[in-house]
Design a protein that fits this description.
alpha+beta, Aminopeptidase, 2 domains, seven-stranded mixed sheet, globular, Acyl_CoA_acyltransferase, cell wall biogenesis/degradation, PG_Glycine_Bridge_Synth, cell shape, FEMABX
Length: about 375
């Protein structure tokens, strides 16, 4: 198979996405509008005259040298990862280098390892275990092969040890939904989750889908101050909703949990085809006992089931299972849903102009990326 790569229109890109069961929301044409500060383009892979793959590329310019860029393909491209990797990647690299890219960064949407909720729970309880990777996993041969091939071809891994960095997380937590009913999903949750959902219902927490992004953002900023992370500005969320909703009115939704008229939790859900993602969440410090966050999650899970989704993705976790690590609470909250921890191939860089890449890498390290 000889493939060619060329620029395609957003409409053609979206048409291809709609033929797939699901792709990452980061690989939809609308995501280019969310990341408007970066130059973007949609690429298509052609086998003869047939469009067989797509990729959204975000171009980050080099400081002081705008014509050179880091070409970033988040959670993509959308290609046949089971096939000959070189046949897919080489024509993309040639095209991007010709267009001025000094390096390519991509994140293959392919898993390498999976751990069940029971395994994660056992790891947290075992004082000898510190990380997920110390536990036996269900390995995925395709992911293992891709990782090896990228390394052999000169790609450089960009995955931080703690699982979080400036890119997208290598470790995530996913709740399989295929063929399951609400009752089956509920029974798969741990006792604490079921008890918290009952508590929310008893306290009269009401979850609705709304449009009040300002109320969400105020609560999100409060959450950021409490949990010590840097919040995104309101404008970012306004842009995200405008761009994704314009592409598909069912693409993104805001869930708001109220107790006695007061907003106690809020979450954002994104869906593409048969996969749904919990992307942002916020909760009040007051009234945490009414369990608004659990109620929001359950509403999003139920709606994902009703939409025929295969997976409800709770997004990033750190790989720690050390009970003394301050990050372990994140995985404990998500593991309560009864899903599975997943490690993907992660993000990798291919330097196309090594001297420029080294200078860029040194610059980014100095500014803390």
């Amino acid at each position: 198979m000889t493939l060619t790569v060329q620029r395609i229109s957003p409409a053609k890109h979206l048409g291809f996405v709609r033929t797939r069961r699901s792709v990452s929301f980061l690989q939809t044409p609308a995501w280019a509008g969310v990341k408007a500060a970066w130059r973007s383009e949609s690429l298509g892979w052609y086998d003869g005259r047939d469009l067989v793959g797509t990729g959204l590329v975000l171009h980050r310019p080099v400081p002081l040298v705008d014509r050179l860029t880091l070409a970033y393909v988040p959670e993509g491209p959308v290609i046949d990862w089971t096939g000959d990797l070189d046949a897919w990647i080489d024509p993309m690299a040639d095209r991007l280098k010709g267009d001025g890219a000094f390096a390519i960064r991509l994140g293959p949407p392919v898993r390498t390892d999976t751990w069940s909720a029971a395994q994660v729970k056992e790891g947290i309880a075992d004082p000898e275990v510190r990380r997920l990777t110390e536990l036996p996993s269900q390995a995925a041969s395709i992911g293992t092969r891709i990782t090896a091939r990228l390394r052999e071809s000169g790609w450089l891994p960009q995955n931080p040890l703690d699982g979080f960095g400036n890119g997208h997380p290598q470790f995530t937590f996913e709740l399989p939904l295929t063929g399951r009913t609400e009752d089956e999903v509920l029974r798969g949750m741990n006792q604490l989750w079921r008890r918290n959902l009952k508590k929310a219902a008893k306290e009269g927490v009401e979850v609705s889908i709304g449009e009040d992004l300002k109320a969400f953002h105020d609560l999100y900023v409060h959450t950021a101050e409490r949990d010590h992370f840097t919040p995104r500005p309101l404008r970012y969320f306004e842009t995200m909703f405008a761009q994704l909703s314009a592409e598909d009115p069912e693409r993104i939704k805001l869930y708001l949990a109220h107790h006695q008229g007061e907003l106690v939790a809020a979450s954002i859900l994104i869906r593409v085809g048969t996969q749904a993602w919990y992307t942002y969440g916020a909760s009040s410090t007051a009234k945490r006992e009414v369990r608004g966050s659990n109620a929001c999650q359950w509403a999003m899970i139920r709606d994902s089931l009703a939409a025929g989704c295969d997976v409800y993705n709770l997004r990033g976790i750190t790989p720690t299972v050390d009970a003394d690590d301050p990050h372990v609470g994140l995985i404990q909250f998500k593991v309560g849903t009864g899903g599975e921890a997943v490690r993907s191939v992660g993000e990798w860089d291919l330097p196309l102009r090594p001297m420029v890449y080294r200078a860029f890498d040194a610059y980014m390290r100095r500014r803390g990326r």
